[in-house]
Amino acid sequence: MRGVAGMGVRHAVVAGGGIGGLAAAVALNRRGWGVTVCERAPVLTGIGAGIVLAPNALRALDSIGLGPDVWAGDALLGPVGLRAPDGTWLSRTGAGATSSRHGPPARAVHRGSLIDALAAALPPGVVHLGVAVTGVDDTGNTGDRADTVVVRTSAGDLRADVVVAADGVRSGLRGRLFPRHPGLRHAGEAGWRAVLPGFGPPPRSAAETWGRGERFGIVPLVDGRIYVYATAAGPGTKPADHHAELIRRFGAWHDPIPALLDRLGRRNPDPVRVLHHDFYELASPLPRFHSGRVALLGDAAHAMTPNMGQGGCQAIEDAVVVAHLLADDADVPAALAAYTEARHRRTTRISRRSRRIGELARLSHPLAVSARNLAVRATPSAVTSRALDTVLGWQPPSGPAPTVRA
User: How far is CA 375 from the centre of its chain?
Assistant: First the structure.
């Protein structure tokens, strides 16, 4: 594997080949860094689900060369809104109005497509599959290697000038760097995700429906495919038959949910893989997103609930910012301290906001649900759109990187 530091070109080791890790690898590579990505899985995959790339994420991707032509054909069409189980629209915003306020229209893509686009933007030999990063050691630095760290992997040791820990919600590196942090907590929900094949006309709207402690989401993808997801309050006990459980919970909800559930249950041409998982978030914010020459990124740094659809988007932002600060001859520990300063407050606020949305969505008492729905219907769409300004209006850093010194 590549991973030799101190030989002229500075070298970064990225732990994790998910969205955040690959975005960081692309951003660093385009800033002149040598990069090695270590991914413990044997293949790169955006397991069975969709992702909505909000305007803030699209700007970040554009800043590292993954611009609009990469996502041609994947625009999120039609209105975006919130409904009740009987089909009543509680809130509805035209996609055009949203894009004019916050920039480019959001794009709905399969995670696999995004992973493929990021991987394709890297030079051959950068990504190493089936290789896990098990630790980082800076205790043995001597002489001309004083400004590097040793990265322990399942395939042997590497030396690096910087390590990007993008190893996910259950980050092993986070636990080693912050052993006293309480770690993850259950977020009070479990969920299902699936991507339905492209046969039959897709819905023209992306929408989420809120019931009593349950939700169902529909996001049209390109080529007629549809990303669907559902949630239920409480820790999830894995049902023996996911399709039967979804029918039991959501089969009487408004169209097109019953038809989509019917499509989910079909066996031809191929069975649809349904993913089921509990939601977790960090019990409290980390004190910082760096330690020495290691930067934590994405879920490793700020695991949040999916209620705002910003988990992947914030990981992409992280990647662009950390690469910008590490450009040129920046002092690495100082640059990573600046990265914490740039990202900690923003991601903490978004995480807290996402948690509050989840609390509203999980309401189950009929009176509380009625009051919530009434409040949503009474809120003008313009007010809802303005409330997202600080999230969706984010701009990537531009121009030369600042001089960052210890």
Answer: 29
**In the chain, where the domains are located:** 11-74+111-184+282-360
d(CA 66, CA 321): 15
- In this predicted structure, what is the pLDDT of residue 143? 44
Q: What is the pTM for the complete model shown?
A: 0.93
Residue 72: DSSP 8-state? T
What is the Cα–Cα distance from 256 to 295, expressed in whole angstroms?
Answer: 44
CATH architecture of the domain formed by 11-74+111-184+282-360: 3-Layer(bba) Sandwich (3.50)
Cβ burial of 64 (10 Å; 0-12, 13-18, 19+) is buried
- What values do phi and psi take at 351, rounded to 5? -60, -45
Tokens of 109: 């893509």
Whether the CB-CB separation of 39 and 115 falls below 8 Å is answered with no
User: What local confidence, expressed as pLDDT, does residue 99 receive?
Assistant: 52
Cβ atoms of 36 and 63 within 8 Å: the answer is no
- What is the Cα–Cα distance from 269 to 263, expressed in whole angstroms? 11
pLDDT at 118: 96
- CA–CA gap between residue 226 and residue 260 (Å, rounded): 9
pLDDT along the chain (406 residues), means of 10: 65 97 98 97 80 93 89 61 95 60 83 92 97 87 66 96 97 97 96 85 81 95 86 84 94 95 74 88 98 97 96 98 92 96 98 96 97 95 87 89 62
10 within 8 A of 33, measured Cβ to Cβ: yes
What is the rounded distance in angstroms from the CA atom of residue 222 to the CA atom of residue 107?
10
Q: How far apart are CA 401 and CA 284, in angstroms?
A: 31
Of all helices (H) and strands (E), which one includes residue 322?
helix 311-325
